[in-house]
Design a protein that fits this description.
This protein is α/β, with parallel strands linked by helices. The chain has helices at 9-17, 51-59, 72-76, 79-88, 99-105; strands at residues 23-27, 38-41, 64-70, 94-97, 111-114, 124-128. It has a six-stranded mixed beta sheet. It is globular, with a radius of gyration of 14 Å. The two termini are 24 Å apart.
Length: 129
């Protein structure tokens, strides 16, 4: 038996397949479906769980060396929200790019975790170390 705080077997399976330099997407509730990559949908309802809650849950067992987010996140969200994301990603270099460019990276990911987050442009791509 694995000794991790992650309980969802589908999420554990996805995380176990992410290797060095692979990408993993954490997405909000409105992010488009990508049929070519595995999606683990952990959404329950609006705001449950959030991208930051999922990030906090996987961070202990997932070594991220880079993160990508949409530049629009910076303009569409308040400073307190931006600060929460910055704190959650502390120690991980973050590149903000146009959302259209961000979405071009998604098909190369090993998988996508869909949350119930309602924060605008809360999506992130984590590159494993």
């Amino acid at each position: 038996m694995l000794n991790t705080k992650i309980l969802n077997p589908h999420l554990l399976s996805l995380l176990a397949r992410v290797r060095h330099t692979n990408a993993l997407v954490l997405a909000d509730r409105g992010f488009p479906f990508w049929p070519q990559i595995e999606t683990v949908d952990v959404s329950v309802c609006d705001g449950v769980p959030t991208v930051l809650q999922v990030l906090a849950a996987i961070r202990e067992d997932f070594q991220a060396t880079q993160a990508f987010m949409a530049r629009e996140f910076l303009t569409e969200n308040s400073k307190p929200t931006r600060d929460l994301f910055a704190a959650a990603l502390k120690g991980i270099p973050v590149t903000h790019e146009a959302h259209s460019e961000f979405k071009k990276r998604v098909p190369g990911a090993i998988g996508l975790i869909r949350t119930g987050d309602t924060i605008q442009y809360a999506n992130m791509i984590l590159i494993s170390g």
